[in-house]
Amino acid sequence: MKRRPGSRVLVRPEVVWNHLHRRHLAQREFAKLVDMNPGYLSQVLSGKRSPSARRRRRLQEELGIDDFDELFYVEPDDDG
After folding, report:
1. What is the average pLDDT across 9-14?
2. Whole-model pTM?
């Protein structure tokens, strides 16, 4: 997935919540599994932060999701 400069990659929080619910995991436990600060993960899930490529890969790996578009979407910049 190629993104334009100025665009942000955001998490589809409902996908994460569904996976956590099925695995009976709390957000804090999941943050530890993906090596993220719980506060940072909260910001990612609320759309306040855009995770780096490394952190996106880690989220996909831990959730077992191969398809980028299943877990993330690109928010266009103000021009797009």
Report:
1. 98
2. 0.86
DSSP string, 10-43: EE-HHHHHHHHHHHT--HHHHHHHTT--HHHHHH
Identify whether the C-beta of residue 74 lies closer than 8 Å to the C-beta of residue 7. yes
Burial class (CB in 10 A: 0-12, 13-18, 19+), 35: exposed
Q: Contact, 27 vs 20, CB < 8 A?
A: yes
3-state secondary structure of 67: coil
Strands 72-75 and 8-11: antiparallel
Whether the CB-CB separation of 41 and 17 falls below 8 Å is answered with no
